[in-house]
Amino acid sequence: MKPVRKAIIPAAGLGTRFLPATKALAKEMLPIVDTPTIEYIVREAIASGIEDIVVVDGKSKRSIEDHFDSNPELENNLREKNKLELLELVEETTDINMYFIRQSHPKGLGDAILTAKDFIGDEPFVVLLGDDLMQDEVPLTKQLIDRYHETGESTLAVMEVPHEQVSEYGVIDPAAKVKDGLYRVKSFVEKPKPEEAPSDLAIIGRYLLTPEIFEELEKTKPGKGGEIQLTDAIDTLNNRQHVYAHKFTGDRYDIGSKIGFLETNITFGLKHPQVKDELRAYIKELAAKL
């Protein structure tokens, strides 16, 4: 069994839900307190043992590349002023094996994954979507890698969601519960009506995939909006090899919407050592005025 060493982070989306901020700024660079959202994703991958990360980006995404590149002028300035803690924060983002591939004509998540085929080769890999931040004692990506070591097959992260919200997600139809928190998948249902949903287990933004997925992606025809859907390819992959679902029980923060982004900033701010006390006091003061 080959080790899981590589990760794909799709980042070619236009970020229209955050306009006008994302007209010239990559959505993935919007900060949670003081850290770009994509940095949280990269940290999760590294903490899980991933060695090489490819970001599939598009136009107006140069700021992502710059963030993970060295900045000698800034570093020298911080060093001269003896701001060593800040210098360490800056340098932490440069000693990472980061690669960038341009998705010139975005055609969906499946197409973004297919763009990185040559980078992945014949190895298993993980996909981390930037709209979800995950927190647990063991990083979710590491949990998926551990499951892969058990099964040797593709494994998706799922989470139980309120039944009335299943229409907002892709949902799995579990064929069988293999062990606690691990399911064999019978099929996938995209955004079902609550009364038609086969389960409340929704697919969230982490995937561990075997390289056979590329063959399925190459055969997958564009669906709604002319996009190649990753879930369609996974569904056909499930016909030739087992696909599993791992139930995540940690904390998930949806930063793909304005309200989710604001809620996440408040939650993380209340934990941030530099601002938590002042933020807590401000919230109490604000609540008293409402």
Description of the structure:
The structure is a single chain. With 290 residues, this protein is of the alpha/beta class. The protein has two domains: 251 residues, Alpha-Beta Complex (Spore Coat Polysaccharide Biosynthesis Protein SpsA, Chain A); 34 residues, no CATH class. The protein is 34% helix and 25% strand. It has eleven helices and 13 strands. The strands form three sheets. It has a nine-stranded mixed β-sheet with strand order 5-4-1-6-11-8-12-10-9, sandwiched between helices. A two-stranded antiparallel sheet has the order 2-3. A hairpin with a 2-residue loop joins strand 2 and strand 3. Helix 3 packs antiparallel against helix 4 and helix 8 packs across helix 9. The radius of gyration is 20 Å and the shape is globular.
Give short descriptive properties of this protein.
290 residues, alpha/beta, Spore Coat Polysaccharide Biosynthesis Protein SpsA, Chain A, 2 domains, nine-stranded mixed beta sheet, two-stranded antiparallel ribbon, globular
Write the layout of secondary structure elements.
Layout (H helix, E strand, L loop, with lengths): L5 E6 L19 E2 L2 E2 H11 L4 E6 L4 H6 L4 H9 L3 H9 L5 E5 L6 H7 L1 H4 L4 E4 L3 E4 L4 H12 L2 E7 L9 E10 L2 E9 L10 E9 L3 H7 L10 H8 L5 E5 L3 E4 L3 H12 L6 H14 L1
Parallel strand pairs: 1-4, 1-6, 4-5, 8-12
Antiparallel strand pairs: 2-3, 6-11, 7-13, 8-11, 9-10, 10-12
Provide a quick synopsis of the model:
With 290 residues, the protein is of the alpha/beta class. Helices cover 34% and strands 25% of the residues.
